[in-house]
Write a structure and sequence with these properties.
about 0% strand, globular, 15 helices, mainly alpha
């Protein structure tokens, strides 16, 4: 029996002009899906802080900066630490953002095959739009937090769904997806900051951002060219049942002529993966997931545990400005490396995890002993950090797609996405006591 899913192959993608056009459309479509999927998550980190600041401070205006995770109040009089600390670590914000995503990535791969891709995309777009609306019109802290959680749900479900979706297309669309997710951080930060600096309020800015879920909807339903095997509106079980029925009818039609071969269905089992098969695939994925998780653990430990403490006094940049540039350079590094898959492929991702660990240890010592002489060195290390993280992400999923069996590939892409979220969660938990320790000095 023919396999029910055509993985990494699109029958429309030939080398003629039509096939080339299809490839370009699909690449652009996945680039836009990557951008839109991470956009709400990135912007919420800034916008929620602005709204909360306006709600919690009656005598101060809302912040007009757009740091990705938190803005710093320079010269905090209530803080006597040499590190000019915030009362609460940015890791607390990170945990609120990542936990819904982690929950989805842990449990969804076991049941998400029951939801067709079209339904998933509609749900993600609705969640993203709801997050913008909730935070923009929030009148209480819980509404803003709920809005951030909706953005996290949209991003988490979208990431595992779109990564699984890539197996139905040519492998080049994974490059478009990786580049788009890298661009989300940089474009989201600059666009939000630019609109605020232009004089728009956070509320109006967020309402303008409602165009992003619309772009996601258009990219998926009108830009992509679907292969016939894609389960758009029907569940996998329905498609398998239809294929089995068709195959049985063909066997009945040919029974008068010759004895049908039975080895095909035995050698190539069909139907959804069983629970035991899924567990077996997950165990095999740890060689990919563990290095990816280590990279993101150390990466976000730097971002949330150390970045705000790498502060240089009496230079041309304020503490808030230094932090914003750290985040911008980090996102730039992620964008460059996530877009580099066509040029450079790194099979041994564990090397990237070792390099990122060394980077984190060095910056931890730099925070403790304050031996770095200039902010420009920190800029270089933060850019390097982003390059390592982005390269680990795209290469991990590239080689999972390339080396996994056809029958397991769709589930593998979804299940492996838990690696980065798990690493980020652990990083947030570690960063909280580290922040407390340094701020008590």
């Amino acid at each position: 029996m023919e396999q029910p899913a055509s993985v990494n192959s699109d029958p429309l993608q030939r080398l003629d002009g039509t096939g080339r056009c299809v490839q370009i459309r699909n690449w652009i479509g996945f680039w836009l899906l990557g951008l839109c999927n991470n956009f709400a998550y990135v912007v919420m980190l800034s916008a929620a802080h602005d709204i909360l600041e306006k709600q919690e401070s009656r005598n101060e205006t809302a912040s007009t900066s757009a740091s990705l995770h938190v803005d710093f109040q320079v010269g905090n009089s209530s803080n006597s630490s040499i590190y000019d600390c915030n009362p609460v670590s940015t890791a607390a914000v990170l945990l609120a953002d990542i936990l819904p995503t982690l929950f989805i990535k842990v449990f969804a791969p076991f049941v998400i095959h029951k939801m067709p891709y079209g339904v998933r995309v509609l749900f993600c777009a609705i969640m993203a739009a709801t997050s913008f609306l909730l935070v923009s019109f929030s009148s209480a802290v819980w509404m803003s937090i709920l809005g951030v959680m909706f953005a996290s749900i949209s991003s988490g479900l979208g990431e595992l769904s779109f990564l699984s979706l890539t197996v139905f297309f040519s492998r080049s669309v994974l490059e478009g997806w990786g580049s788009g997710t890298g661009a989300a951080g940089l474009i989201g930060a600059f666009l939000y900051s630019g609109l605020i600096q232009a004089g728009l309020s956070p509320r109006i800015t967020l309402l303008i951002m409602l165009v992003v879920p619309i772009i996601m909807f258009i990219s998926y339903f009108f830009l992509l060219v679907y292969p016939p095997s894609l389960p758009q509106w029907r569940t996998k079980e329905t498609e398998y049942a239809a294929l089995v029925s068709e195959d049985r009818q063909q066997l009945l039609d040919s029974s008068d002529d010759e004895e049908p071969e039975s080895s095909t269905t035995e050698d190539q089992p069909t139907g959804p993966l069983s629970f035991r098969e899924r567990l077996s695939v997950i165990i095999g994925l740890w060689r990919f997931v563990l290095p990816l998780g280590v990279v993101y653990l150390t990466e976000y430990f730097i971002n949330q545990g150390l970045m705000e403490l790498l502060f240089f006094h009496n230079i041309f940049l304020t503490h808030a400005a230094q932090y914003r540039w750290y985040q911008t350079l980090y996102q730039l590094g992620v964008l460059v490396s996530r877009s580099s898959l066509r040029c450079v492929k790194i099979r041994k991702v564990w090397i990237l995890s070792v390099l990122q660990m060394l980077n984190a240890v060095f910056l931890l010592l730099a925070v403790r002993y304050l031996f770095l002489p200039t902010v420009w060195l920190v800029f270089a290390f933060i850019l390097y950090e982003g390059l390592l993280g982005g390269a680990a992400y795209v290469n991990t999923f590239h080689f999972i797609s390339k080396e996994t069996e056809d029958r397991h590939r769709e589930f593998s892409m979804a299940a492996a996405s838990v690696g980065d979220s798990l690493g980020i969660t652990v990083a947030g938990l570690i960063s909280l006591p580290v922040h407390t320790y340094f701020c008590s000095l």
